[in-house]
Amino acid sequence: FRKMSIPGGIDCPGAELVHRAFGLVRSPDTLVVVNCAGRTRSIIGAQSLINAGLPNKVVALKNGTMGWHLAGFQVARGATQHAPEPTQAGIAKAKAATAQVAKRFGVKFIDKAGVERFKAERDQRSLYLIDVRSPEEYQRGHVAGTRHAAGGQLVQSTDAYVGTRHSRIVLYDDHGVRAIMTAHWLIQMDWNEVYVLTDALAGETLVPGPEPVTVPGLDQIKAETIAPAALKSALDAKQAVVVDLDNSLAYRAGHIPGAWFAIRSRFATGVKQLPAAPTLVLTSPDGKLAILAAAEAAAASGRAVKVLAGGTASWRAAGYDIETGDTHHADTPDDAWYRPYDRKAGVEAAMKDYLSWELDLVAQIERDGDARFKTAPRA
Q: pTM for this structure?
């Protein structure tokens, strides 16, 4: 949203639309236009509001913000306007609306005893416990054992969160609005065992902080670490070179000054591009990927290798400077998909290519013949 948006637009994640719209839109005569960068989330978001029975006329902006830009209109950059927290009256209306959505789409509900039964059967059936609230709410407090995926992202990037086809998915939410709207889309995507947990947070001792990341075998790897302060001294003395293993987009957005972007699988050639220094210091967002890569970097470079304790996050927490831009690349930055507006050249051509790809998706699905999407029942 900050990178490129429609002037005057209000940022609201997809699963938050129904949760917030009934309190945000004051008059039923107001036209509601939903847009994303392209088409997909625009259409899903608009249809979510329609399915929930918002009394307004709701439309999706054709081709989204990219279409706006290609039409010659000015886009806003750096916008910060967010949809406000839902009002109590708005929540009441949203709950009533999603009760009808649940009935229409056959959303299944489960109680906590049912979840415990599912947990006991994990050796037979894969089970995913997913909190679909906002990232901020999850970090303030979540049920232990749940992972976070904002509802819209779970629908948009299901395979990034759920690795087993036709597994059991239990959705956690406070009021249930976001969980129901998420479930009704997953059902249409042929996920047959999606459940909304009733009173998911009631009576629970909530755990604050980000989702814990477990890397099997990580604690068995011995890697020498270096603290941020010691790294700062080594850099000032030109006794170390930092190698950043984050993806190239994140590297461009911010990295330790002087750090080199590198791809772990290309150490054999990438380390040859690094300047001379007795020690290589590997970093990654939280340091875990750096630990995994330490032995490989040492073998490829023939130098002493250390890992920044806590990763780049610890450097930031210590208050040290962060550098932006593509300052030092040991490898070609082709490790991540660059959205059209992430590019430095050929932006408009990339936008047109992307929109053409989106428009062809329906025909592609028909050609492949392997999708099992369900037609929504009539209201």
A: 0.87
